[in-house]
Design goal:
The chain is an alpha/beta fold. The protein has one domain (2-219): Vaccinia Virus protein VP39 (Rossmann fold), CATH 3.40.50. It contains 8 helices and 9 strands. The protein has helices at 13-26, 58-66, 79-92, 104-107, 140-149, 163-174, 187-190, 200-207, and strands spanning 2-3, 10-11, 47-52, 70-75, 97-100, 116-122, 150-160, 179-181, 213-219. Strands 5-4-3-6-7-9-8 form a 7-stranded mixed β-sheet. The protein has a two-stranded antiparallel ribbon with strand order 1-2. Helix 1 (13-26) packs across helix 3.
């Protein structure tokens, strides 16, 4: 066993080996992204989706298996989550996944404008103490970058089980003129859509009595 980077959990030898062999082959270099971005994937893809902080990779893998024509960029700095994704990529032969194991805020500015059809930030660290709020991944700068890299008509999905962070997400996203909140009634943010698989973290939140909120925003076209 070896200890994973940025984690207190141990990696199995097979997982550790993957982080030494497969991770370098799948890792995106923000300073040398191919253009068009679709060239980054082994399989031909028609569009690209991004997940920031994929955790145990349940959500990303669910979509990647069902959408082989979509290229997925998974961002996760914690090595245990990355190892789980790499294990699935290798065992299932998935060719539509690339990864970045650093801070998403370093990758986003390097992505081409209007290159993504969907972006997901699900159950990020809420940094609940007020003095730490500035560390939240959902902020004005990140949302501005997400608005830039999403295509017109693209979709941003956010989720949290922390009421204060849900309010924070909604308030910040609604200040970005390019994002239009898709909800028309309360059930639209209280009920998880059918194409939104439940993550391990969400299952834990529900078991512990916390109620997740599911926020969807559409990337509006520029005003004519």
């Amino acid at each position: 066993m070896v200890y994973g980077r940025r984690s207190g959990h141990k990696l199995r030898p097979s997982q550790a080996a993957l982080t030494e062999t497969l991770l370098p082959r799948l890792r995106l270099d923000p300073s040398a992204l191919p253009l068009p971005l679709e060239r980054a994937f082994k399989a031909p893809v028609r569009e690209i989706w991004l997940e920031i902080g994929f955790g145990g990779a349940e959500h990303l893998l669910w979509h990647a298996r069902r959408n082989p024509q979509v290229g997925f960029i998974g961002v996760e700095p914690f090595i245990n989550g990355m190892a789980k994704l790499l294990s699935a990529v290798q065992s299932e032969g998935l060719a539509n996944i690339r990864v970045y194991d650093g801070d998403a805020r370093l990758l986003l500015p390097e992505l081409p404008t209007a290159c993504l059809s969907r972006a997901f930030v699900l159950f990020p660290d809420p940094w609940p103490k007020k003095r730490h709020n500035k560390r939240r991944i959902i902020n004005a700068e990140t949302l501005a970058e997400l608005a830039r890299v999403l295509k017109h008509g693209g979709e941003l999905r956010l989720a949290s089980d922390i009421p204060d962070y849900v309010r924070w997400m909604l308030a910040h996203a609604r200040r970005v003129p390019q994002f239009v909140w898709a909800a028309e009634r309360a059930e639209d943010w209280r009920t998880r859509p059918e194409d939104w698989p439940q993550t391990r973290y969400e299952q834990k939140a529900v078991r512990e009595g916390r109620t997740p909120a599911y926020l969807r925003f559409h990337r509006a076209a520029p005003a004519s």
